[in-house]
Amino acid sequence: MYYVYMIRCQDNSVYTGITTDIERRFKEHLSKDKKCAKYTLTHTANEIESIWKTEDKASAAKLEYHIKKLTKAKKEQLIKNNNIDELLGKNVNSDKYEKTYLES
């Protein structure tokens, strides 16, 4: 299982990434250690905004790539409305992705 996630940073920017373990990866972003993304070293991670799960790495990488190409305004729409079809329909098959949440 792979996850595509969007993190809100303290400066209100949005970071997008992929992982097989969302909780571990978010802790890495928060810790700012050597496994942290370069982006979240300088843009402090604040909270996870959205998570989608998919079966394979290729699908996760494709969704991540297309989300990263979106404008900030469209990323905000995606976070708010989960409208993959509307924003990315011509580039990704939304049936491959399931919106999910961290378990408490």
Describe this structure as you would to a colleague.
This protein is an alpha+beta fold and 104 residues long. It has one domain: GIY-YIG endonuclease (3-Layer(aba) Sandwich), CATH 3.40.1440. It contains five helices and four strands, in the order E-E-H-H-E-H-H-H-E. The chain has helices spanning 22-31, 38-42, 57-68, 72-81, 84-88; strands spanning 2-9, 14-19, 45-54, 98-100. Strands 2-1-3-4 form a four-stranded antiparallel β-sheet, with helices on both faces. The longest helix has 12 residues, at 57-68. The chain is globular. The two termini are 19 Å apart.
Radius of gyration: 13 Å
Q: Count up the helices.
A: 5
The CATH topology corresponds to GIY-YIG endonuclease
CATH hierarchy class name: Alpha Beta
CATH architecture call: 3-Layer(aba) Sandwich
Low-confidence stretches: none
Distance between the termini: 19 Å
Helix content: 40-55%
Shape assignment:
globular
Adjacency order of strands in the biggest sheet? 2-1-3-4
Q: Could you spell the SSE succession in H and E letters?
A: EEHHEHHHE
Structural class: alpha+beta
